[in-house]
From TrEMBL:
Signal peptide (residue range): none
Enzyme Commission number: 3.1.3.12
Cofactor: Mg(2+)
Keywords, alphabetical: Hydrolase, Magnesium, Metal-binding
Protein's UniProt name: Trehalose 6-phosphate phosphatase
Gene3D superfamilies from the UniProt entry: HAD superfamily/HAD-like (3.40.50.1000), Trehalose-6-phosphate phosphatase related protein, domain 2 (3.30.70.1020)
Entry GO MF terms: metal ion binding; trehalose-phosphatase activity
Length: 246
């Protein structure tokens, strides 16, 4: 992976006839916020996604670690493909995970209890949960240690590091796994995968797009397998808006 900070070029214009588009949500389509429920959705974002999906003949998907119901709430007005929970949930294709692991409720109770005792923010998710320490980054080590004990006790779940958070998600699911499934859908045939993402959870998907005759766009600083770079989510939104036919 290259250290790209400011050194890689901006992506070329989207090719509506030849590209397929996969877009991460937090830190990519929208700016990182102090809390998961505080993200600001630009008013025209769902419409831009809807127009682009139409132009790409349906070959567009939002691919996120968020729970699917949260994505649907945030992006009302966009009815296209969505993948949530780091590849476990989906709208518009068969959900990769049919049922949560049997001990989901027990795991979530442990996460919620720890968060309450420790004064941390707990985000309950469709198939897991996240402990957020953005308000006090000094808590990272203890949160990670607790997550490790949970992953040992609940082997159906895996640790998913996030920005100022640690998540437990069902083991065996990933965003690149979701891309492999999405691209089996007929509307993706013959199109080059273009993936935009900002976080470590996006790196395998960025590498997947690069390895399948497409390309990755890394949003923000840091090492990445992506060939292209944009500094901030608003730059990605400008790039998307420029591709919308008027
Ligand atoms: O795959 P993504 O769409 O990038 O989602 C990854 C996680 O994003 C969310 O947490 C992050 O964004 C929050 C809002 O900006 C921020 O407060 C938090 O510190 C970040 O970690 C979301 O809450 C998680 O469920 C997602 O998995």
């Amino acid at each position: 992976m290259d250290d790209l900070t400011g050194k890689k070029p901006a992506p070329p214009a989207l090719d509506p006839d030849g590209d397929a588009l996969f877009l991460d949500f937090d830190g990519c389509l929208v700016e990182i916020a102090p809390r998961p429920d505080a993200v600001v959705i630009p008013e025209n974002l769902p419409q831009v996604l809807a127009h682009l999906s139409e132009q790409l003949n349906g070959a567009l998907a939002v691919v996120s670690g968020r729970s699917l119901h949260e994505l649907e709430r945030f992006l009302q007005g966009y009815d296209g493909l969505m993948v949530g929970s780091h590849g476990a949930e989906a709208r518009g294709m068969t959900p990769p995970l049919e049922e949560s692991p049997a001990d989901l409720a027990e795991l979530q109770a442990e996460l919620a209890g720890f968060a309450q005792e420790q004064g941390l923010l707990y985000e309950e998710k469709s198939h897991g949960g996240a402990l957020h320490f953005r308000s006090d980054p000094s808590r990272q080590d203890e949160v990670e240690r607790f997550a490790e004990t949970l992953a040992e006790r609940f082997p159906a779940f895996a640790i998913q590091p996030a920005k100022m958070a640690v998540e437990l998600r069902p083991d065996g699911f990933s965003k690149d796994g979701a891309l492999a499934l999405l691209t089996q859908l007929p509307q993706f045939a013959g199109r080059a995968p273009v993936y935009a993402g900002d976080d470590t959870t996006d790196e395998p998907a960025l590498a997947w797009a690069e390895a399948h005759d497409g390309y990755g766009i890394k949003i923000g600083d840091g090492e990445s397998a992506a060939r292209y770079h944009l500094a901030e989510p608003r730059n990605l939104r400008d790039w998307l808006a420029a591709a919308v036919e008027v």
